[in-house]
Amino acid sequence: MQIKAGGIDEDEYSRLKLFEWFDIEKVRKEKILVVGAGALGNEVCKNLVLSGYKNIDIVDMDRIVKANLNRCIFFDEGDAENGRYKAEIVAKKLRKLKRNAKIRYYVKRIEEMPENFIPSHNIVLGCVDSVEARLHINSNCYLFKIPYIDGATHGQIGKVHVVIPPETSCLECGMNSTHSKILQKRFSCTGRDILYFEPKIASDINTTSIISAIQVQEVLKITHGLRNYIRNIFYYDGRRNFSSIFELPINKKCPNHNDK
Has residue 192 got a pLDDT over 50? Predict the structure, then answer.
């Protein structure tokens, strides 16, 4: 068999295929849901498409503002000036990035989507700033046994929580009374079009990039049936140059694990 010099460079996924476990057909068949199209959502969607995923749904009801621009690769000044929807612009830019990708977007809260929407996907990624939305995604994913990868940042601190039903604990296993009190409060880095927000916090693209990269790395593991996924929380602190994995035990009192 003759191998054309430089032939490996003709395949855009050739470097990924050098991993013995990587299967581009498995990647292309996955139906992925990304909830949240802000800073984390931009980076997650970019990484998914460049990793070969081509069947992606995006849900976000927010509009773009100028404060988003230094952390969101797909947004520009015109998008902010015209108040375009985040999900719409991310979908539009992804289609330009990969013309054969099937990208759909929904300008709604995830809680407003039909009951069969979340379970119609193979893997769900959370990139939201709402406790209420997180718990809604978490409970639906656990009920229908869909892997859920939740990402969050707070300044230079970030975490990724990997939920694999029924093997691992879920987000609600770690909830406390404080979370319950803020369940109906939606937090935002921009403070627009919301009923409640706390003082704005510092945020940067570097922390966002790290957390989103870990999220998509875990997606690739799950797609390929690898068992070395995070159990359960990856914690990152850029201020102290520290990162670690924390295991969250299953809480038998959690409604997602209580047989009653």
Answer: no
End-to-end CA distance of the chain: 63
Average pLDDT over residues 88-114: 96
Q: What is d(CA 82, CA 130) in angstroms, rounded to the nearest whole number?
A: 25
Interval 2-35: pLDDT, tens: 445 566 788 999 999 999 999 999 999 999 999 9
Burial of 194 (0-12, 13-18, 19+ CB in 10 A): middle
Q: Residue ranges of the domains in the chain?
A: 21-246
CA distance linking residue 69 with residue 46, whole number of Å: 15
Residue 60: exposed, middle, or buried by beta-carbon count in 10 A (0-12, 13-18, 19+)?
A: buried
Burial class (CB in 10 A: 0-12, 13-18, 19+), 61: middle
CATH topology of domain 21-246: Rossmann fold (3.40.50)
CA 255 to CA 260: how far, in whole Å? 8
Provide the CB-side half-sphere exposure for 88 (13 A, CA): 12
Q: Which residues participate in catalysis according to the annotation?
A: 189
Specify the pLDDT at position 186.
44
pTM tops 0.85: yes
**How far is the C-alpha of 246 from the C-alpha of 232, rounded, in Å?**
6
Between CA 75 and CA 66 the distance in angstroms is: 9
The secondary structure of the chain in percent helix, strand, coil, rounded to multiples of 5, reads: 35, 20, 45
Q: What is the mean pLDDT of the chain?
A: 89
Please report the pLDDT score of residue 6 as a whole number. Answer: 61
